[in-house]
């Protein structure tokens, strides 16, 4: 695939922790070029270096430090809009951009649950882009919104999709141990989490239960039918910087053996078109067979943080199988995931590059 | 209850982390008096201060520092033997003491799973002491072994027993987030657990599944019939010093409402005889209704570390109810639990104090 | 000492982390009784349970949960006012209370550096209360302000005062490793401090350098002459919950041997009148001789958190001696320290209890 | 520089944590090729994958997993021997290899303090290789030993050498906050370091004081004259995974201004020959001017972990300047440092590649 000139893109909410990840990743992207950074009134008008207090690893891209942060008006000379906005702000801003013709790739939850807005992880459900024309027709928008899932759901569904395709999942119990970076910056107070576990993350269990059904759903005539899986989620915050760990018990229509499950996961590749996207990992799912893996610190960075690592696949005394997965929540589970979605849209010709 | 003179007791494995807790707690016990500390050959013959590198909070009892550590022979002038031995050592040593007529209160796993050895948490199943005569008869021992459960199982069963009594538990999925102190000292390497989760603790899931059924089992004619509960456990280590956190999904024969479950847990007291034991907490089960409790750092020390705190009681989309419990693993879940067992035996007249 | 009726006291800034410590400690104080809790407009009018999100260990005192939080006006029916206000608020509010006749015991920095405001640690410089009449005369106040030092300075000066008395300190290099609780709540973001050190705490080094000279200063005719010590401080934040650790290199006019220094520290008791204060520790300074002590987690709670633990006393290749001290920053170093000051004032008859 | 064929190298102590770093880094080295891995009798004879429990980030090099681990006899077909042995083992083994003609690049402390063994950081004192002929003559060895310093000393001396060259350092007080990985694996028990600081590391203060003088010393006629600097070190362990942080107070013969110090550090490059070594960073010293940097988590990975970051350069009330440095202790401070030394030896023609 050859793309002659880079596609101009912008980041909304560029000053926050997820916004910083977008900026860092897009600064060296082979297809996309940042032409604008936008944020709330408090930051607009300042140069980016001044407006953003850098909290993620590495340094800010040196050539973007002087870029003046714009406000959130839909008059940006870009083709793709990456949204790292808080959901309450995204609710008003993202439709304004879609209405103005932009392709909005959102990391926010505001529109994730709309029946005509696709929720996409390219390796799992690239065909959900078929919902875009329906969305445009429903809402009379020349542009559109595509969303990426909650970081935790990403780790769950990437581990389950290959198994669902073959054995059909019916029931699922998940318990999460989520990293502090999932709460943004400043996010979790150190006095709350050092030497501690917080067994509650507002809204998280509902997101996991709903989004998993959407991501594993099927598309017919541009409409999504959610997967019929009964899901019980327990969400917890633990003192880990990056990387969400999830334990799962799963019941299938057709119970696989442990060996079959490992084999299906190891063989999963996704569509060829996906494998050629610049941000796509060579192996989206890694299976480890050591007794004590995956672990967030040791597995989160696999494949540039784009692979989900699965392990401890074993019999479940109550349902069928138990397993553990780890996902890098701020890479695969946030900025990189949305960028991969934009790459998918580009490869499918859904971005108006004229 | 008045006990004229203190009962002489000894601690086996006194130099390890759990052994140190025993020593610390027994040093100021109203009923018991330490007359001997015993340990492996490496420590025997040294004075206790020299043999034990103190790793738990607080200081070693000053008046025991000069006590010479004995070896593990059953010739100690004590009535009750507290065993903090590693399980492989306990397997040989504990029977030798029972055979020699001692009452052995063990924190080790070696004899927990024998059909004629009681596994006891006094507030839950004090009546399991009825297994002692059977054990003595089976094995032709003048003494006996009573065991206390794995620390994690303690947190699970204390939260579940009141509900099981009323609503009958059928199915259970638990995920644990366990403190590092559960692995003893030196135990977990800091390079393994800082900024990390280890989703595996050797043998722990099997212990949880088996011991829960034993603790919730019934006694008939001196024999225990295990509870028929299907249990799936996921055990994890997290960077917390003390306090095991457990998430649970539970299915009952008679589904309670959330309010009924809270009410049953709040009203649970255990038998009056138990409430008068010196180590027994006023309230063995505390229910918190804040959205984000219990938490290990903030709830582990409730009631001197002897109460289990339960919270987040809510509907489960798959089974009936979800909840979270926290237990102090090295107090209620280890040394204090075994001491409470010894108090129970004393109160029931099962210790030969002549 | 017999005090017939409890002295009515109030806490300003009662809803913050230090305010909560004041409330917790005063709720069971033998001499003082909380009659009012006051805070900023945001909290005033609400009941205390609602206004304060409890962040410190333990639970809020049950009988104070319903007390309505007052605003910060000096019309409170109390004799002693404990101030846990932020310094910028304290600057206006504390003088208003002193002007209205109250004895203000402040934990804030606002008036610590005034030449007529005593900065007191009772065991070290109880005689600095002689500055109070001067302050009242200078400012024409019927009441007065007495301050307690920065938490870190407390750990430094308690370790040094006995040595200064005998050997006269001339030079001091200190490096601090400070707990997160020193920054209040929410305070330090977990993303900033997990697996990290922050080698900077705003204003801390200047506070340490200045306050140490004040605390070790002498009083003549109601005026304080600061100690002439050259001090270089390096302040750092580390991932520890409670307990500030300080390394020190010290040069004296009369160089003591290591043994002499240990002996002087071990023998230090403070005045008899201080030892009878209810919050005073039996031993304000503990010396440990193990190679690796003091440590914040293992030593912070010594003597109910009121003792400073000193260790690793050894030769310094550049100055005279090196040593390490640990202080519990939110107990001795904050709320308990100010309460001890109020006890001193009471014992000295400086509180108008009529 | 063109090197036609890779130089065969071996790693002694290949199974430990530092040994694993050597293996990981050398597996993709442009000049060197691992031809042997050696370890103690316990590991010898096993394949490397089996003998080494991988504890560092990333995975073991796949093509080395099957290499059979050799014992520590000096009969290995390599030209350069990297030693990651414990010092007590190194004391016997390293001379055996030097005597057999090998160039030994050691990370162990065993021979660091010998007057004829060079201690080298290429950017600082590449000219100390002039000690090698002296060593060979003294000991009648065809090979030789070159050592790299203690990880903490590396962070100190890289920050100080440029200043020493221009302003001549006379006095130094350092306090370290060292990462747990500096203690190897399993190393520091998590029960010792979570929520804690250990203000003691055995032998570390002496190493810092001695090695700093050696590294900053001068060579005349193949002999090293140590720098005459009076140094006082305070060594502490903190809960950080990688990256040692050091605070320093420094006195110079010619006191620089803060600006001069910054300028000298920023301009420091080392010799051109060093800059061309494959492992050498573009900028060995980075100066940051933010108030709160450097921080270990945010700065340790700068320049692939090979740069030392310096910050908070400011006046010292007692000596002349204060500052903070951060070094990646297991990269620059251990394996990478020794590899860089081997590259220096190669570039200088001191490796017999025939």
Question: Could you list some keywords that capture this structure?
Answer:
homotetramer, 354 residues, Rossmann fold, Dihydrodipicolinate Reductase, domain 2, five-stranded parallel beta sheet, 13 helices, 32% helix, 21% strand, globular
Descriptive report:
Four copies of one chain form a homotetramer. With 354 residues, chain A is an alpha/beta fold. The first copy, chain A, has two domains: 7-149 and 335-347, NAD(P)-binding Rossmann-like Domain (Rossmann fold, 3-Layer(aba) Sandwich), CATH 3.40.50.720; 151-328, Dihydrodipicolinate Reductase, domain 2 (2-Layer Sandwich), CATH 3.30.360. Chain A has helices spanning 17-26, 48-51, 87-99, 122-125, 131-139, 151-167, 190-193, 204-215, 258-267, 272-275, 296-299, 302-305, 331-347; strands spanning 7-12, 32-38, 80-83, 103-106, 144-147, 169-178, 218-220, 223-225, 230-237, 244-252, 285-287, 308-315, 321-327. In chain A, the strands form three sheets. Chain A has a six-stranded mixed sheet with strand order 9-6-10-13-12-11, with helices on one face. A five-stranded parallel sheet of chain A has the order 2-1-3-4-5, with helices on both faces. The mean pLDDT of chain A is 95. In chain A, helix 1 packs across helix 13 and helix 6 (151-167) runs parallel beside helix 8. Chain A binds chain B through residues 171-173, 175, 177, 194-200, 202, 209, 230-232, 234, 236, 238-241, 245, 247, 249, 291-298, 311-312, 316-319, 322, 324, and chain B through 171-173, 175, 177, 194-200, 202, 209, 230-232, 234, 236, 238-241, 245, 247, 249, 291-298, 311-312, 316-319, 322, 324.
């Amino acid at each position: 695939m050859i793309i002659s000139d880079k596609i101009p893109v912008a980041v909304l909410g560029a000053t926050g922790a997820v916004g910083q990840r977008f900026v860092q990743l897009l600064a060296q992207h082979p297809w996309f070029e940042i032409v604008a950074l936008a944020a709330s009134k408090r930051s607009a008008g300042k140069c980016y270096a001044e407006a953003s207090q850098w909290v993620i690893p590495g340094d800010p891209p040196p050539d973007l430090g002087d870029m003046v942060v714009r406000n959130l008006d839909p008059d940006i000379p870009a083709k793709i809009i990456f949204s790292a906005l808080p959901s309450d702000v995204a609710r008003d801003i993202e439709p304004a951009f879609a209405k103005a013709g932009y392709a909005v790739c959102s990391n926010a939850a505001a529109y994730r649950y709309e029946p005509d807005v696709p929720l996409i992880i390219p390796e799992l459900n690239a065909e959900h882009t078929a919902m875009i024309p329906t969305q445009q027709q429903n809402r009379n928008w020349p542009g559109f919104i595509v969303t990426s899932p909650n970081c935790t759901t990403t780790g769950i569904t990437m581990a389950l999709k290959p198994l669902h395709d073959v054995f059909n999942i019916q029931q699922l119990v998940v318990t999460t141990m989520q990293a502090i970076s999932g709460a943004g910056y400043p996010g979790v107070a150190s006095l709350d989490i050092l030497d501690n576990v917080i067994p509650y993350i507002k809204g998280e269990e509902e997101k996991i239960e709903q989004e998993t059904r959407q991501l594993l759903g099927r598309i017919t005539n541009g409409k999504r039918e959610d997967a019929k899986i009964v899901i019980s989620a327990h969400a917890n915050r633990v003192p880990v910087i990056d990387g969400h760990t999830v334990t799962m018990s799963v019941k299938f229509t057709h119970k696989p053996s442990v060996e079959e499950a490992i084999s299906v996961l190891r063989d999963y590749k996704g569509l060829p078109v996906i494998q050629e996207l610049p941000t796509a990992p060579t192996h989206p799912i890694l299976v480890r067979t050591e007794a004590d893996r995956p672990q967030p610190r040791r597995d989160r960075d696999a494949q540039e943080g784009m692979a989900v690592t699965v392990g401890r696949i074993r019999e479940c005394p109550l349902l069928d199988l138990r397993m553990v997965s780890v996902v890098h929540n701020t890479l695969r589970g946030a900025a990189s995931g949305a960028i991969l979605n934009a790459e998918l849209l580009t490869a499918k010709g859904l971005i108006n590059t004229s």
